[in-house]
Amino acid sequence: MMYRAVGNCCAVDLKSMDVPLDEDAIFEILKEKGFRRVDVDMVSLSESVIGKASWKLPSGQWEAPHYFDCSSFTKWIYGQYGIAIPRRPRQQFEFCRAEGKELAQDELLIVGDLLFVSSPFVHGKRTDEHNGIGHVCLMANSEEVVCATNSELGKGVVKIPFHELCATRKICGAGRIIPNDSKPVTLLTPPHREIETSDDVKWVILQSLSKR
Questions:
Q1: Kindly report the CA angle at 28 between 24 and 29, in degrees rounded to 5?
Q2: What is the pLDDT of residue 148?
Q3: What is the chain's pLDDT, residue by residue, as a tens digit (212 residues)?
Q4: pTM to 2 decimals?
Q5: Angle, alpha carbons 12-144-15 (nearest 5°)
Q6: Is 2 inside a domain boundary?
Q7: SS3 category, 20
Q8: Is there a domain that residue 3 lies in?
Q9: 182 near 17, Cβ under 8 Å?
Q10: Which of 78, 90, 73, 82 is closest to 201 using CA atoms?
Q11: CATH number, domain with residue 114
C-alpha cells in the first residue's frame, strides 16, 4: 500500500515494495541515504496526551499536542506514524472507504482502526437532528477507544470503554487504514529529499541499485 508522507515522516510497507532485497539490505541503503527509522506506537502515543491535551474546536495541527478536536487528534496520530489522512470525520471515513477498508458491523475492531459515531453537537452547538457521522475515535484495543472530546464522554483526550461510548452514541461506521496483514515502518526523511509518498522511497532504493 502507498502512504502519503506528513512533513519529513513517511510510513513504508517494505513487503509491498517489490524490490529484490531483504529488509536488512533495504535499511542499509536508506541509512546511507540519510533516512532514519523511528518506532511509533499509536496506543502509547494517544495515551501520552490523556489528561494533558485540551479540547478546542477547531484545532490546527500546529496546536498539537496541546489542543485537539476529535478529527485533528486522529489526523495527528496517523501523521506521527507517517500517514496523511484528511481533516474531518466524514472525510476520514470516505478515505477509509477509498484508500483503506470500510469495516462491516460484525468485523472485529483492532488497534488503530477508526470508529465513527454520531454526535449531539454540530459546529459546537447541541442539536437533536444530527444522526450522521459527527465524531471519530481511535481504537486502543478491542474494548476501548481514545478520542478528543468536550461532551458527556469527558473533556480533552480521554479513554472510554466501548460499551460506554455505545450507550450515548450511534455507531455510524468503522474503517481501517493499515491492512491487518501489514506492518509499515516509519521513516524520517532527509531534508534534501522530496518524499511525498512511500513510493518515492521505493524509487530511492531502485535508483541506488542501478548505480551499483
A1: 120
A2: 97
A3: 899 999 999 999 988 888 889 999 999 999 999 999 999 999 999 999 999 999 999 999 999 999 999 999 999 999 999 999 999 999 999 999 999 999 998 899 999 999 999 987 655 555 555 568 999 999 999 999 999 999 889 999 999 999 999 998 999 999 999 998 888 999 999 999 999 999 999 999 999 887 76
A4: 0.93
A5: 15
A6: no
A7: coil
A8: no
A9: no
A10: 82
A11: 3.90.1720.10
Could you give the 3-state DSSP secondary structure of residue 79? helix
In whole angstroms, give the CA distance from residue 12 to residue 5.
9
- Which H/E stretch holds residue 186? strand 185-188
What is the domain range of residue 57? Answer: 36-188
The residue whose grid cell reads 444530527 is 130
Q: Cell 468485523 maps to which residue?
A: 107
In total, the chain counts a number of residues equal to 212
List Cβ neighbours of 20 (8 Å cut-off, separation of 6 or more). 209
For residue 20, report the phi and psi dihedrals to the nearest 5 degrees.
-80, 50
Amino acid letter for position 82: G
Nearest to 5 by CA among 202, 212, 181, 200: 200
Phi, psi of 92 (to 5 degrees): -65, -35
User: Has residue 155 been placed in a domain?
Assistant: yes
74/209 Cα distance (integer angstroms): 37
What's the total number of domains in the chain?
A: 1
Domain membership of residue 54 (yes or no) is yes
